[in-house]
Amino acid sequence: MNIDLEIFSPIHQIKNQLFEDKGIEVFIKRDDLIHPIISGNKWRKLKYVLKRAQSENKTHLVTFGGAFSNHLLATAAAAAKFGFKATGIVRGERVNNDTLFLCRLHGMELLFTDRESYKDKAMLFEKHFVGDNEAFFIDEGGASPDGAKGCSELINELSETYDHIFCACGTGTTAAGIVNGIQNHNLPTVFHAVPVFKNGGFIKDEIDRFLTSPANYQLHLDYHFGGYGKTDSRLIEFIKQFVASTGILIEPVYTGKMLYALYDLAGKNYFKPGSRILAIHSGGIWGLLGMKDKF
Questions:
Q1: Is the overall model pTM greater than 0.90, yes or no?
Q2: What SS3 class is residue 87?
């Protein structure tokens, strides 16, 4: 089967009095619309990974994630769509939730492992699938050079040039891909990564290992709201107002934090008047299923 999806990722302008007052224009690239489940950077990171699996005659995708992992769910849906078997190795105790229900519904087998063992994913793959020539290792979050290659193609789709591009940052793969794309097209655009982890400076090493050549970019480390999957009333209120005023659904783990950073920086006069800014909606809205109690 041909591993491809038609990319539908329009760019919409976000109208807000703050942006008018500051003399800037802000747009959002709707990667969340690529596919209902294999959306955003999840599809971009999986595209060439799946093509590699197919070229190596692998039929069984094995990947990793937490109990509310959008990557697990996207991989399960992609496996079902493109004819692979799938296994997800889940960090932590055995649980049942909406995300894992959807993984199972798409045919993914789930294996739960303790958090210490989870740190060595190569060992876990070897333990469970040694001798299985059809099993194909996919790292947590789709982190890989192939994943970065898929994300770099986002820049090919832009018909206009932006002064700044913002994206949330987890594994660093998406950020690296976008930076590579900016460099491939010799654009003057400044890339801004918003890590979603506390003490997220380590993400620079993760981004740099997937760069095709050295590059400068900006890291904004103060918008983690306590760490991965953490939030507070400021972020939740921002998300409520954003969704209600734009009709664009976002979540608190990734895109919500990135947009909060963009709005906050705009309010602090970070951008020169006349700047054109593009925010990347990296999908993952199913993450809301694990955070309903926050709202």
A1: yes
A2: strand
